[in-house]
Amino acid sequence: MKAKPVLQIFKNTAAAATGLRTRAFGLGLPLRKVRKAREMAACQALFDLEYYSNKTQVTFRNKKDALRHFLSAPLSDLASPHPLFDVAWYLQKYPDVALERINPLIHFVAHGAIEGRSPSRYFDSQYYLATYPDVVKSRANPLIHFLERGAAEGRNPSAQFDTRWYLDTYPDVAAAKRNPLVHYVEHGEAEGRRRAGEATFRLDAKYSLPAEDFSAWRYHLDHTMRSREPAPRRPAPTLDASPRTGGASLGKILIAIRADGAGAERNATRETAGSIADASSDCTSHVVDRFTYGAIDDLVRHVEEKHEDATFVLLMEAGDTIDAKGFARLVAWLNDRVSVCVFDSYFERDDRIVPILQPGANRGQLREVDAVFSRFAIRADLLKRAAHPSRTQDPHALLTAALDILAAGRQLSGFVHCAFPVLRTPDLSGAIADLQASRVAAPPPVGPVPEASVSVIICTRNKAHLLTQLLENLVGVSSRIVKEIVIVSNNTDNLRAKENLRVWSEHPQVRIVEYNQKFNFSDQCNVAALGCSGEFLLMLNDDIVPITTDWLARIVARFEDPTLGAVGPLLLYPDETVQHGGMFLGHHGAAGHTLRHATLPEADYLVTATSPRDVSCVTGAVMLLRRSIFEALNGFDVQLSTIFQDVDLCIRIVNSGYRILYDPSVVLLHMESVSIKALIAQPGIQDQRGREYEYFCRRHGRQGQGSDVYHNPSFSVEDESLRTLSLVD
Hints:
The structure is a single chain. By secondary structure, this protein is an alpha/beta fold. The protein is 41% helix and 17% strand. It contains 30 helices and 23 strands. Helix 17 packs across helix 20.
């Protein structure tokens, strides 16, 4: 049966309601009954009588009576009407629906589905619409489409559920002709059935998984890396652990274990020797010695006096053991082009495995945070250069000094990441907790802000109160670095908003640009930038709420680093969950928000959202960039008028040789739903967004499909929560 688009459902019900209204007037019936009839017709497809009866423990004569009961029930007593529509989850996920006291199913059918909102944790509307553009073109409700024809066609409801695999693996479900996702929700999950094949593994709330799953994942990962040819990538500081040289130019490796006390030294050396012995003879032949040290000076002296033939030094901690497969992958990558290599690791906690997966070779993060926990491989000659001037005794300080040397010599291409667990460490739960706690503490006061001038660009339509609050912050606490504020008014017709713009136009720092054309965010920003003279451009949404007074000064201070092209801050939803924690390429074929909806620091992965780090892109909602770069790249692409213009610009900035930094020391609130609702309500916007999505994919190809060097390839690009492990592709 063909799925009916949401708008068609309402057209049909509206036509029926017209006749009903005529009869209602003749019979003297209230119009409330007309509205109820329309709502009942729209909700029919997502109402399961048997499921609802079981949930409410009430027996109904027919579906109409049950649906009437559901639509009249208060939100506090509302039961879910369908296995794939979770009322409580929907209200918690989208607090604006609960705030407006709207029946969640009515909201989903009328607005939520077309806005890309998901009906439950099992069905991802955004994924479904992005993966199957024909559903977007037909304007069908994604969930209704999946139930009525999508599952039969083998379509997946989310990145975590493989429809064909589930039916092939569980023939009893196929024989019963059950919808596979409905079966999984009602029975399969409780029975321990998997949602997808062995190539996908799910981390729990503490980012751990069963030991058998970890072993299976590591086996498949190793098999994939050894059996395939390396995929071509743009020049970038990350490696996927597939050998290019087979270690031919590797030379010798010195294993350096930091430990205190003779007992610790003996145990560390013995454990390391045993784990290396498990590796292949081809790999162990590269090990020149195992040395236990207490200070960096001891290590440097040992290299200079006894092991001048050592090419690389692998720094470990007491209690670490080497993973045989991981060591083989590391050996395969340490060649004459590599200067510093960071890698993944893992530890055991409560009979479960916790993988430590790094965000690529991330200088932006490692210069401030020891996210690798002092475990890395470094070329011996660079070790000596980095240790002697600083006289540091701390491995992390040694690492940052080495990275600064590489950056000064424009040799950061020698800083790489091996995306395979190389070491098994002792339980790092305490170290991770301490690291997270250190990032939650209030950041130190910002130092002297370098002399800079910022031109602020704000696009707006019919906003008054939020815009005023934002402008007062900019012309107040940030006035010494804000040179000008350009407000682009796009067809503003609200009287309060128009008066607000008139008042602000009299401010000496503010300039109003009238853009009375069809909405095109890219063109609006480009037009505003033409008249700007500041050294920096600050792209700013009108629904941003600053919560500190030094936020702009902190962002500007980051540009003391000449390699930076753009910086974006941490943005939170009004409920203080993450809206923007940096972005990564490949999500739905374009880009996703790292740890979207996570509560910090509890749901942070290591210190991904709470520490600065290099990223491939940041959101245009708040983006500070050099005006010279914006002009050199011809600004935003006007072909991307509604979506992905920020991602496209960031890709071009990175490809031009600049870095992009995510900075969580700057925190702002983003009322994202305010702007999204207004945008999606415009006629034809979904068709327009579909065309722009196709244009973006054609333009960026593989680079937009998941080759992000700052997103660990062991994380599925389709899961923003960083809980789904997949294989390097």
